[in-house]
Specification:
Aldehyde Oxidoreductase, domain 4; globular; AldOxase/xan_DH_MoCoBD1
């Protein structure tokens, strides 16, 4: 399609685009009638438990399964070699990049279960299958893993040091990718000529993802059709099916993936984990379904973690505080394996997102992605986007203090102005729309910025330190990919949208239905959504990167136009008119076809009913149905942006910090459902506050996790978050038919910098220039004591 479509007609109607329509699935979920994977039990199913290494790094000498196999109810005990002998292949190794010297990134082979070495605590070495979950757990405890321990390394910077333990022969120095982007000489010249240079070394701490629903899966095998079926919670069944082809050594048409309700993911459930091919093979071997469900303590080890970057940022500025060049250098911790880890976050996503909303002539990013003896680090709500927005906003705040420039003013001087759009960045991205100066001004007004000194004084009178911080952000959404837009007119009179994105808590059903209702006039309550069956899909990019509405929305609009075309041709026959004389319109009664210039019409849903009941006889060449299956080319990147302003109070006697005020202005383009968008922002902000003050994965020198349960790992609670003030300043995107920009990860992108900038502002009276996340009471108290 060319240009944008107008979906704002009948804007006062209850289900129109722009209306705060509650999520369709909420009544079912709130009544406890949701269908999550662990709720499913198939006839004759067995239960699996994984045997995991308790050693972070070591050579496997033997896996003794004798005692386990003799226990009551145990049906099979499988090692890595058993799976290899049974024909299973290696785990998928993720995206490929080039090293700075142009060489290909190595991809060490990871089998489904470890056979040579273990590389982190939790590395699976065997799977026990039994009649019951308890019997399987007893069997797993009876497996004896003979492992010779080796020295371990858990920090990326330590892993590249001379003499560090080596995880793979194929990656000397543990570096999986030596990434570089930018013109080194030009950037160096800009720094040499700069009137001022600001430098900060920032640790972006590792976090556990902690969705409400732990991972769970049920594997089945049909010997007659030689077909595998996997039921699990994931972020996209079409993509998961493709990821399984390597381990199963099977073509995609022999694999079916089914997903029901998903209780959160935040990026973590997008990957193919070793448990999935392991239980599928066990199902084939035993001739019955096999179910596996993670326990919460186990998930701290088995799930991919988030963040974990160690970066130095440098900003070159002229005498007026205008940016001349940006340079970022450092490490990204990938963990032990590529299958659930990703090298994109500390490399390509740093490049794309580090420009933010600021005119930056030159950019250089040098980052090494490094293997360590830790759980793999995968995508986590933003996957590099919040991290780098945090870096840039901390740099600007620090530069403003060093140069004696107001913190808001230094941002104004560097904003990309609306008249400069479209603006091509040194990262190669092109911003199509936005109004960054206005968003800052609106956010400052919303925060009552000018009256902050009075609030600061009031806090001081109570013995508290108070600070205020800005977090102006811009994100680059996920990359384009083909997306399905199916519209199916069902026998019961309902209409089903079929698409390859997948709702794991966002609430896709309502906004997708709003788009379709606006385009075709189909009653909102008659629209259902199907996302979780790979057999029903022609394409599907899954959900991730804040792109679902752009991708599925584009596919739905294009599919709706095909429905219009089919309907126009069918209506011409029913109304006994020429096709060229048939018009389609959405009126208050719904969508209808009309003979131009007359009052002769037939409603879309009425036409569907006549076709369904066989009351229409159509000539050859006329589509026999209104239903369509369409694959759309997903639109290019979009650029959601905004500005958050946080206020933090600190008790200097205890080091306890809390967020006491929070406001935000966001540009998400055309907002289809403001209720859901605001909820997405709230969730992301709370996760950001959790990382700022509470969450931190800690390993000891032997690679043993010290934060392996909720006894040791703190998640944010309701009393850790203030009330939020949310407002929008939408500037429609020009890159997709809806004009939307995505919102799912923006809460983290705005909260990390605004909260930490506010904390540093509160502590600035002590001369404290920076403090790393998580700013726990102990860290804050120690910083105050050290500053005197």
């Amino acid at each position: 399609m060319n240009g944008q479509v107008d979906l704002t007609q009948f804007a006062q109607e209850k289900y129109a685009v722009g209306q705060p329509v509650p999520r369709k699935e909420d009544p079912t979920l709130l009544r406890g009638q949701g269908r999550y994977t662990d709720d499913l039990n198939l006839p004759g199913q067995a239960h699996a438990v994984m045997v995991r290494s308790t050693i972070a790094h070591g050579i496997i000498r033997a896996i003794d399964t004798t005692a386990a196999k003799a226990l009551p109810g145990v049906l099979a005990v499988l090692t890595g070699q058993d799976l290899i002998d049974g024909g299973l292949g290696a785990m998928p190794a993720g995206m490929s990049f080039k090293n700075r010297d142009g060489s290909a990134m190595p991809k060490p082979i990871q089998m489904v279960l470890a056979t040579d070495k273990v590389r982190f605590v939790g590395d699976p070495v065997a799977v026990v299958v039994a009649e019951t979950a308890k019997q399987a757990k007893d069997g797993a405890e009876a497996v004896i893993a003979g492992i010779d321990s080796l020295p371990a390394v858990t920090e990326a910077a330590a892993a590249v040091a001379p003499g560090a333990p080596q995880l793979y022969d194929a990656t000397p120095g543990n570096v999986i990718l030596d990434f570089h982007h930018g013109d080194t000489e030009a950037v160096a010249a800009a720094f040499a000529s700069a009137a001022h240079v600001t430098r900060l070394k920032i640790r972006n701490s590792r976090v556990v993802v902690c969705p409400m629903e732990p991972r769970s899966a049920i594997g089945e095998y049909d010997p007659e059709g030689e077909r595998w079926t996997l039921r699990l919670g994931c972020q996209g069944v079409f993509g998961m099916r493709q990821l399984l082809t390597g381990p199963l050594q099977a073509p995609v048409e022999k694999i079916r993936v089914l997903t029901g309700n998903v209780g959160g993911s935040f990026g973590m459930k997008a990957s193919c984990y070793p448990e999935y091919p392991a239980i599928l093979y066990a199902a084939k071997l035993l001739g019955r379904p096999v179910k596996w469900t993670d326990e919460r303590g186990e998930s701290f080890l088995s799930d991919s973690h988030g963040r974990d970057h160690d970066m130095e940022q440098e900003l070159a500025l002229d005498a007026d505080g205008r940016i001349l060049a940006l340079r970022i250098t450092g490490y990204g911790n990938i963990g032990a394996y590529l299958s659930n880890g990703t090298v994109l976050q500390p490399t390509g996503n740093i490049v794309r997102n580090s420009i933010g909303v600021y005119a930056t002539p030159l950019q250089e990013v040098s980052a090494r992605a490094v293997f360590t003896n830790t759980s793999p680090v995968g995508p986590y709500r933003g996957a590099g986007r919040p991290e780098v927005n945090y870096y840039i906003e901390r740099l600007l705040d620090t530069a403003a203090r060093e140069m004696g420039i107001d913190r808001a003013e230094i941002r104004r001087r560097n904003h990309i102005q609306p008249e400069a759009l479209p603006y091509t960045t040194p990262a190669g991205t092109t911003y199509d729309s936005g109004d960054f100066p206005t968003i800052l001004d609106k956010a400052l007004a919303l925060a009552d910025w000018d009256r902050f000194p009075a609030r600061k004084q009031a806090s001081a009178e109570r013995g508290r330190l108070r600070g205020i911080g800005i977090g102006q952000y811009l994100e680059v959404t996920g990359p384009p990919a083909p997306e399905m837009g199916g519209i199916r007119f069902e026998d019961d009179g309902t209409v089903t949208i079929v698409t390859g994105t997948l709702d794991y808590g966002q609430g896709h059903a309502s906004p997708f239905a709003q788009v379709l209702a606006a385009r075709l006039g189909i009653p909102f309550e008659k629209i259902a959504l199907l996302q979780g069956d790979s057999d029903q899909l022609l394409a599907g990019g899954g959900t991730g990167g804040s792109k679902s509405l752009m991708a599925s929305g584009t596919a739905i609009v294009e599919a709706a136009d095909l429905v219009r075309e089919n309907g126009r041709r069918i209506a011409a026959h029913v109304l006994e008119a020429a096709e060229a004389d048939i018009e389609f319109e959405v009126v208050h009664g719904g969508g209808q076809f009309r003979i131009a210039g007359t009052d002769r019409t037939i409603g879309l849903m009425d036409l569907a009913k006549r076709l369904r009941e066989g009351r229409v006889t159509l000539p050859d060449g006329v589509p026999p149905t209104l239903s369509v299956s369409h694959v759309a080319n997903s639109p290019p990147f979009a650029y959601p942006n905004g500005c958050h302003v946080a206020e933090v109070e600190v008790d200097p006697e205890t080091g306890v910090a809390e967020v006491v005020r929070y406001g935000m202005v966001n540009d998400f383009g055309v907002v289809v459902n403001p209720l859901l968008v605001e909820g997405q922002a709230h969730g992301g902000i709370v996760q950001g506050i959790g990382q700022c003050f509470l969450e931190h994965v800690v390993y000891d020198d032997n690679g043993q996790p010290l934060t392996g349960s909720y006894m040791d790992y703190a998640l944010p609670r309701a009393n850790d978050a203030p009330f939020f003030t949310f407002t929008s300043h939408p500037v429609p995107a020009k890159t997709n038919v809806l004009g939307s920009k995505g919102c799912g990860e923006a809460g983290c992108a705005g909260s990390l910098p605004s909260v930490m900038n506010a904390l540093v502002d509160a502590l600035s009276g002590y001369g404290i220039r920076h403090i790393d996340m998580p700013a726990t009471p102990l860290r804050v108290w120690e910083a105050i004591q050290a500053a005197g």
